[in-house]
Structure formats: structure tokens, C-alpha cells
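Researcher: We're teaching a course module on how sequence relates to structure. For the next exercise, students receive a sequence and then see the predicted structure as C-alpha cells, so they can try to spot secondary structure elements on their own. Here is the exercise chain.
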Amino acid sequence: MVIGILLESIGLELDQSKFIVSQVMSLLAGLAFRHFIPASSTNVIKRHLVATILGLYLGHFVFDKDFLHLIILSTMSLGLMKTCPRYCVHILVLVFAMIYLSFVHLYYQINYYGQKNFDITSPMMIFVQKLTYIAFSYVDGSKSSDKLNEHQKSNALILFPGILEFYSYLFHFQGVVVGPGCNFKDYIEFIDGTNIKKHQNYSTLKCPSVKKALFKKISITLLMIVVFLKLTLKYPFSSYLEPDVLAKPLWFRLLYLHLASKGHHLYYYIPWTLSDAVNNASGFGFNGYDEKGEPKWDLLTNINIYELETSTSFKHSIDNWHIQTKNWLRRIFFDRLPKGKTLGVFVVSCIWHGFYPGYYFSFVFSAFVIYVGRGIRRNIRPFFLKNKILTHLYAVITYSVTHITIAYIIVPFFVLTVESSIKFYNSLYWIGHLLTLILIVTLPKQSFKSKSS
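Model: And here is the predicted structure for the students to work with:
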């Protein structure tokens, strides 16, 4: 009944309505969880049980019978970690999880081609992160410390987690629907209260206030939902390819593209900000105190909206986008691959997202944009740092170019198909690709190299 009313009154699709309802339920459950079952050594089992049971209910509510995929993926991965030789379980779990996810991606792509719905592949992508975190940490626990970096040392698992801990980490109600991914150790410290104890000197545990963080994140989410309903749903990227828009002057199309891009960012801003609030409501996400003594609730933050919207470089935008997935790619792949690190991360990220051609139009071109961005910063930027006027002029230029470039890059990611992607780039004469190629040819090759791995 509630879903039907939401769907009819504000025009949301069924999957979007279920998501909103599930997150509201999770938010209320999180507040009750934090108040009635506070973190303590005596409440550990109770917190695990409640978090898991609520997560199973919410997952089934949103995804119905497709929720079974998460149970199969997690249980078969558990079987691999329990029965296979410890030295290789991380590779086996990674390969199995990625293959399973790929088959489900392909199933939806074949049977629901071009329909960008909120389906079971979204939480499966997060489960792949969590399962590989456990598997790699478990293998790290069998290695000597001199073979591990600092992050690997602090997260290594000497013993394999208990069954309740394992399923609680995967299915806890705060993250089962939309994540984000997190380290196993961070979750366990949230359950037993260590995440608070290590930042306090009190003899008794004092839960830091979450009111400001919750008010800010919920307020931003509500504002973005209004904009989403008024702007994003009315002006999808596909409308850019309609004849009446393509007939407009270039300046109009670039402005239209820019505004549509901002609207489409909300497809990710809304769920990630709301999921951050849900986790914080339950007490998960506390990350110590700032210099003013205010509690920080950014451990699970997946996106820095202000930094993104004021970014003056593509690299800075990437640094503040999909933060938890970026951390996963770095910790599981980039830090561990002996060579071909960047290429390896690129390939894994592509497969993890799925197989729509539009994704690869976006990913491949973005790699070249990052490459060229290094050359621009090292060869062109210094000329604008001679006085304040030139510095401000450079900031205005790079802001405009960065945000138009982002819009230019992400359109194929949303329109999905080869035909629509090519039609879009044809309408703009492939100008972004041509300028990128010119810069690659003209700028010194040495300037494109990364300063460090």
C-alpha cells in the first residue's frame, strides 16, 4: 500500500520507492539500535543478531526472490574460505565472486537491456568488496608482518571470523541495500564499541553525538530528492539526443548537457548520502574528533559533494567520488599487484561495474583525461600562478572545463548503448576526444607520468 501511494503520488519507479522506504525504515531502526542496544562487551551477540535479522528482512523486502543471490554468493564464498588452503583463498573468493557477479550483470543486461533499474547487482557489487576484504585480510593474517603494509597489518585476521560475525558483517541492516563497503575490522569495532574507546580516555564508554551529522545529511538528502523530482526525471540524458535539442546551437547544447549532468549526479548523491546517514544513526561511521573536539562521522562517507561541485580538476573529482570503492580498489588490487597496477585496477573496475558498452566509452576516455590532466598541471598551470588575477582566471577556466568534461564523459554511462553513445559524441563532433588527442601529442611525454605509484 505504501509503495503504491509513493509511486502514484510522486512518480517514482517501484525500485526507487522500495529503496526510499527501506532507507527510512533503516534510519528509524538505526536510531533504536543505537539507543536500546548500545555498544558494549555484553551486547556484542545481541547487536550481531539484531543487525543481521533486520538486514535479512530489508534485503528480502527490496529485492524479493533475487535476494537469494546474496545468500548464495556469501555462503559459497564462506565454504571456499573454510575448506580451501589458506594461502590461496583470497584468489579463489575473488575469482568466484567476480564471475558470479558478472553472470548476474549479463542476465540483467540480456533480459532488461537498457533499463537502468535498482536491482540485485547493486548490493552484489558491495558484497564482492566485503567478501574480498575478509578473504585478503584472512590470508594477510598468515603472513609475516614485513610483507604487509600498515593498512594490511592493522586489518589482518589471525583467526577466521565466527559464522555470526561473518553474516552480520555482510547482511547488517544499515548496509545490505546500498552499502557502502567497509573493512571487516571497522565493522567489528563498531559492534563492540572499540571504534569509540580508541578515541576516548574515559573509563566508561560515552557515545559521541550524531545529531549534527544526521541533521546535515538528512537535510541535504531531502533537498536533493526535491531537485531530483523536479529536474532529473524531467531532463534525462536521453532527451539530449532528441531532434529538437540537437537542432539547437552548440552553446545551448553544452549548457543543457551541463545542467542534465548535475541532475544525474543525484542518482548517486541521494543513495550514498542517505546510506551514510543510516549508518551514522546506528552509531556506525564514527571516525574520531576534529581539531575543535567535534565528532567526525565520515568513516563510511562515499562522496564529498561540496568538493565535487567546486572541483577544478578531473583528478580532484575522482578523489571525492565513490570513496569507499576507490579505497577497495587501492587496498585489494593497486597495493598488491607487483606491476601493471593502474591497468589492473582499470580492468577490475570495468568488470565490477558490468558490461554495457556505454560504461567502457566512459571508462576508457576518462583514463586518457586523467593522463592528460597531469600534463596540463605540470606544463600549463605554472604560467597562471604568477599573480592573483591569472590564478583566479585559471580557476574559472579549469572549473568550467572540468565540469563540462565530466558531463561529456558520463553521458554514455547513462545512455548505455553503442548507438546512443556514438550519436551523442557525433552531435559534439567528438571535440573532447580530439582536444585530448592534441594535448597528448603536443605536451611533453615525461609530464604524463605519475610522480609515484
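Model: If you want an answer key for the exercise: The chain has a mean pLDDT of 89. The two ends are 54 Å apart (CA to CA).
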